[in-house]
Amino acid sequence: MRWSSRATTAEPQVLPLGPCRRVFSVPTEPASVHQARVSTQAALAEWEVAPGSALVDAVLLVVSELVTNAVRHTHDRSPSAQVVITVGADYLVVGVADRDPHMPPTTRTDAGEGLRTVVDLAKLHGGGVTVAPVKHRGKIIFVHFRCPEALTSHNASLQP
């Protein structure tokens, strides 16, 4: 096969959007809430996820609420919490894991005030909240958001 050195004017091929993922740990201390927000905001900005949008504001509030809950309720059993942010073509998922085995309710009527806010924000953005046990002890709370079409088309070239 012969390769040509001639330039072409064809549009670059857009690859399917694969998930982008960021994982980081924070100590279960009050200052970690701000640290988790800043790290989350940096990841979303790096991936060009709808800067200044209601979706980004909701994600930052959710991270704040979930890390606050880890600090308040698990600091004696979990020295740190792990934050996971995953963005795909039409979804964004935030997860916060800790070593406390207590599985909080995620229904709006049974959850505490902070988790009610999280549930409401997830529903507002077409998603939901789930809690799953972690294999070796503890739990992870996942908050799912549906990404608006504008976000998907804006980030068509987003690479993991």
List the helices and strands and how they pair.
Layout: E1 20-27, H1 31-46, H2 54-74, E2 80-87, E3 91-98, H3 113-124, E4 128-133, E5 139-146, H4 149-154
Antiparallel strand pairs: 1-2, 2-3, 3-5, 4-5
Helix pairs in contact: 1-2, 2-3
Characterization of the model:
There is one protein chain. Helix 1 runs antiparallel to helix 2 and helix 2 packs antiparallel against helix 3. It is built from 4 helices and 5 strands; from the N terminus they run βααββαββα. Strands 1-2-3-5-4 form a 5-stranded antiparallel β-sheet, with helices on one face. With 160 residues, the protein is of the alpha+beta class. The radius of gyration is 18 Å and the shape is globular.
Helix/strand structural class: alpha+beta
Count the strands?
A: 5
What overall form do the CA principal axes indicate? globular
- The average pLDDT value, as a whole number, equals 82
**Helix percentage range:** 25-40%
Radius of gyration based on Cα positions: 18 Å
Which percent range describes the beta-strand content?
A: 15-25%
CA(first)-CA(last) distance = 32 Å
SSE sequence, one letter per element:
EHHEEHEEH
In brief, what are we looking at here?
This protein is 34% helix and 24% strand.
For this entry, give a set of tags.
disordered C terminus, 5-stranded antiparallel beta sheet, 5 strands, 4 helices, alpha+beta, 160 residues, 24% strand
